[in-house]
Amino acid sequence: xxxxxxxxxxxxxxxxxxxxxxxxxxxxxxxxxxxxxxxxxxxxxxxxxxxxxxxxxxxxxxxxxxxxxxxxxxxxxxxxxxxxxxxxxxxxxxxxxxxxxxxxxxxxxxxxxxxxxxxxxxxxxxxxxxxxxxxxxxxxxxxxxxxxxxxxxxxxxxxxxxxxxxxxxxxxxxxxxxxxxxxxxxxxxxxxxxxxxxxxxxxxxxxxxxxxxxxxxxxxxxxxxxxxxxxxxxxxxxxxxxxxxxxxxxxxxxxx
Length: 256
Fold this sequence. Notes:
The chain is 46% helix and 14% strand.
């Protein structure tokens, strides 16, 4: 088992990628704390899957955009699960169809707070935990191919993901002496509740798949496996890296 005896926190783990990560981590030997915001039923299903893998699961309702809520979550994890070894910043907020000229401030702030500020708040709390216990540890942030590609009518989403890329690089240098690895995973089109509108419209789906050289959407497990690699010992010499998992989408983009 690649994570035997480890303890991980996965944010936004009530569905999709976060749920797949929590389940895979449990199969690989980790106890897992998960956060959710509104989907208590989904979080309960994730907990069931983790426990079916023979590991402990701690479920916490968290507002990752609120520093106080994040700090309270880390305090609860320390009390009820133990010292964290791994942080997976997965919680995210999608958007589309809103040009900058028409965007209201509340929508702009939501995207930036969930996708960019929340990883900062969680990383800050995790760094304190690891430094108090001699350093080492793994931070993995779920980014998006949007950090590399233009995102018309969802510019703040692309901005937030590009910011996460910068955060990863900066933190990797800042935490090198602590031997805390910091990496991103940038998914392409993945079949999750967040992208359901694309899959419910055959024309939209066909147009999307035409841009992907592998001609299929990714599944949450495709991303979970990449996150597992960056969370385990096999990646100890990898830091400051963005691992793109997109079936070749970014390689095709300019010529599509």
